[in-house]
Amino acid sequence: MPENIMNWIALGDIHQSLNFVSLIPEIHDATGIIVTGDITNHSPLGAMEKFWETISDKNPNILAQAGNMDRNNVTEFLKNKNANLHLEFRELAEGIKIMGVGFSIPTPFGTPGEVSEKQLGQWLEETYKKIGDYNQLILAVHDSPYNTKLDMLSNGQHVGSHSVRAFIEKVQPDIVVSGHIHESKGEDVIGKSRIFNPGMASGGGYVLITLKDGKLEATLKGK
């Protein structure tokens, strides 16, 4: 890979199905892997260890966060690996920062990683205050923004987060990668922000984020 080009693979909604590693041709050579949430299904014993072993064998540079299907032990595991992104930020390259907020607003299924809209909004604001100056910003968020192409159920109902949308409208991150709503794989825009939902990882969907000559670009990839 040329020195002036860096690539990150962003995906989510793994749900313990790790076959996706064979569906991503860039996984070995990518600068790193970004996981937006739902690594497990209620975090059974050994699930995170299997996830870590499988992914780190292909690419050891991992940043990840819990989704609504993950329990608190997921965040603790990631912290111990210095890989947690939930409520944290990293500088991926000079002037290029990423911030993460996992979990989701309440669902009809009573999953373990659900919080109120108010809490999600507070987390977004509090994490943003930590990051300081930047030139370009990536937001990794598990819940998709409300009333977009990324938050629709199969019946057309929008079920995304109002607080995530409000934050994007206010801050205008350059690139947003979300998930949560499996059937709404796609891309959209909110103002100047390009927003993506790559769908379930097992379906081969991911976002290829590229930094070339100081400019961030993103492409929705996979089936």
What's the helix and strand layout?
Blueprint: E1 5-11, E2 32-35, H1 47-58, E3 62-64, H2 72-80, E4 88-93, E5 96-101, H3 117-130, E6 136-141, H4 162-171, E7 175-177, E8 186-190, E9 193-197, E10 206-212, E11 215-221
Parallel strand pairs: 1-2, 2-3, 5-6, 6-7, 7-9
Antiparallel strand pairs: 1-10, 4-5, 8-9, 10-11
Helix pairs in contact: 3-4
CATH architecture label name: 4-Layer Sandwich
Give a quick account of the main beta sheet: strands, pairing sense, barrel closure.
6 strands, mixed
Q: Nearest-angstrom radius of gyration? A: 16 Å
The dominant shape is: globular
- Largest beta sheet: what is the strand line-up? 4-5-6-7-9-8
Whole-number tally of structural domains: 1
Instruction: Please count the helical segments.
Output: 4
The CATH C-level name is Alpha Beta
Report the strand count.
Answer: 11
Extract low-pLDDT stretches: none
Relative helix content:
10-25%
The residue-averaged pLDDT reads: 96
CATH H-level name... which superfamily? Metallo-dependent phosphatases
CATH topology: Purple Acid Phosphatase, chain A, domain 2
SSE series = EEHEHEEHEHEEEEE
**SS strand fraction:** 25-35%
Which tags fit this structure?
six-stranded mixed sheet, Purple Acid Phosphatase, chain A, domain 2, five-stranded mixed sheet, 223 residues, hydrolase activity, Calcineurin-like_PHP
Short overview:
InterPro entries: Calcineurin-like_PHP (IPR004843), Metallo-depent_PP-like (IPR029052). With 223 residues, the chain is an alpha/beta fold.
Molecular structure report:
It contains four helices and eleven strands. The strands form two sheets. The protein has a six-stranded mixed β-sheet with strand order 4-5-6-7-9-8, with helices on one face. By secondary structure, it is of the alpha/beta class. It has one domain: 4-Layer Sandwich (Purple Acid Phosphatase, chain A, domain 2), CATH 3.60.21. Helix 3 runs parallel beside helix 4. The two termini are 24 Å apart. The radius of gyration is 16 Å and the shape is globular. The longest helix is centred in the middle third of the chain and has 14 residues.
